[in-house]
Design goal:
Layout (H helix, E strand, L loop, with lengths): L2 H9 L3 H23 L2 H17 L9 H22 L28 H20 L2 H12 L4 H8 L3 H19 L18
Helix pairs in contact: 1-2, 2-3, 2-4, 3-4, 4-7, 5-8, 6-7, 6-8, 7-8
């Protein structure tokens, strides 16, 4: 059964059909929320809230990309949470090391076949990317995450962000530029093909 049929059944009140849709999209939704919020618990809450909202508003879905429609709900929920955090700053209770980095790493990122050195480098690189993403304005960050991390095409990203295609392309270009500038500060962690070559070389 394809997604369109599942959506039609879910719109008719079939909870099992909606649960199958959730299973198909939950990782994508969570990863977007995590990249926007950088907090596993908040990302889980945002993902759950997004699916509840999607179910309640399923009758309003009029076709097109369901993935983009769902990710718009996730993005808007994360923006709301980020605004709440700015009004009411949250103190991280996770244990931290001397660099104020949380010891709690993303276990799902670990490749059991890699060496401890490779794993340490990848974890550091992921932390650097996340730090640079956090430094972007919300609209730039969302565009970069949707296209470059989640793999949406420009049209899907525009739909998810509810913005014109040209606006999304512009935000993506500016976000990529700022991300690249930031990541040069972590050049030693970058694979050689991503490092800027100095003029003297």
């Amino acid at each position: 059964m394809d997604e369109t049929e599942l959506i039609q059944l879910a719109q008719g009140g079939d909870l099992d059909a909606f649960n199958r849709i959730v299973i198909a999209h939950q990782d994508l939704a969570y990863n977007l929320a995590y990249r926007l919020l950088n907090d596993p618990a908040a990302a889980e809450d945002a993902t759950q809230d997004a699916f509840i909202s999607a179910y309640r508003n399923l009758a309003r879905f009029r076709g097109g990309s369901f993935k983009a429609w769902l990710l718009r709900i996730v993005t808007n929920g994360c923006y709301d949470e980020l605004r709440r955090q700015k009004r009411r700053p949250i103190t991280d209770l996770e244990p931290q090391n001397e660099e104020s980095e949380s010891f709690d790493s993303a276990v799902w990122m670990v490749d059991p076949g890699e060496s401890p050195e490779d794993m340490a480098l990848r974890v550091e690189l992921n932390a650097a990317i996340q730090r640079c993403l956090e430094g972007l304005d919300e609209e730039f960050r969302a565009a970069v995450i949707l296209v470059d991390v989640q793999g949406l095409d420009y049209a899907e990203a525009a739909s998810a962000l509810n913005r014109p295609l040209g606006t999304v392309k512009s935000r993506l270009a500016r976000g990529r530029g700022r991300l690249q500038e930031c990541l040069q500060g972590f050049e030693e962690l970058l694979p050689s093909e991503f490092r800027l070559v100095s003029e003297g070389q």
